[in-house]
Recover the amino acids of this structure.
């Protein structure tokens, strides 16, 4: 079993839909969680990061962490065609640094006009 | 300002040849990472440089892989005697500080071994 599981999709939604992207993990030491967006033939770009449980909001994006269930989510409200990309989750213990990030495989999202 | 720059963007070479991939990090970023991204594999950490400290080479898959960082800036990843399983996208990222800061990625080099 991988330390981080992420459904690769593809996920296809109509424009304006609320999108839910998820990752599950097995290591209870993970406390630092990130979401990256990767457009085709581009490098990943950081969307959001959080250290704790609960919700963190940034514009149309909300990151949610449920440590009791070892489950993180990224919600996208009012999705746009420009949100079509692959979304990667990454995480690590709070002690340590980013070269020890464990990455999900990514979920491919298509938002259709 | 300029982001992380990688060259070449694409590289096709024959099995057994050596290849060099270049990364130019964001100016002032002291931490530099190399990753490999393969279909169905996710991002795989290869090597990490931080300032003048000894690099963390723990992710290099074999002794055919090496990397250097000259003058604390540009880095080169070298793969000797390439194999078909080396075909992947090689991504470079840089960050400020001690390596706990968010990483900024380049667009990668797509390497194909024939």
């Amino acid at each position: 079993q991988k330390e981080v599981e992420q459904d690769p999709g593809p996920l296809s939604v109509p424009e304006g839909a609320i999108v839910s992207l998820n990752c599950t993990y097995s290591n209870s030491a993970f406390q630092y969680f990130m979401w990256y967006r990767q457009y085709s033939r581009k490098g990943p770009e950081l969307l959001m990061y959080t250290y704790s449980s609960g919700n963190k909001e940034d514009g149309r994006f909300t990151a949610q962490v449920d440590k009791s269930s070892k489950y993180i989510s990224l919600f996208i409200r009012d999705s746009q065609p420009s949100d079509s990309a692959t979304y990667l989750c990454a995480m690590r213990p709070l002690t340590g640094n980013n070269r020890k990030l464990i990455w999900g495989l990514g979920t491919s999202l298509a938002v259709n006009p | 300002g300029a982001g992380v720059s990688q060259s070449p963007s694409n590289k096709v070479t024959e099995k057994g040849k050596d290849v060099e991939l270049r990364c130019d990090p964001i100016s002032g970023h002291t931490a530099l990472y190399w990753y490999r991204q393969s279909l169905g594999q996710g991002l795989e950490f290869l090597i990490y440089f931080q300032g003048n400290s000894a690099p963390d080479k723990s992710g290099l898959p074999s002794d055919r892989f090496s990397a250097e960082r000259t003058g604390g800036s540009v880095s080169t990843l070298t793969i000797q005697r390439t194999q078909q399983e080396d075909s992947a996208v090689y991504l470079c990222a840089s960050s400020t500080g001690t390596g706990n800061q968010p990483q900024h990625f380049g667009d990668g080099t797509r390497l194909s071994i024939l």
In short: The mean pLDDT of chain B is 92. The CA atoms of residues 26 and 55 of chain B lie 18 Å apart. The longest strand of chain B covers residues 42-50.
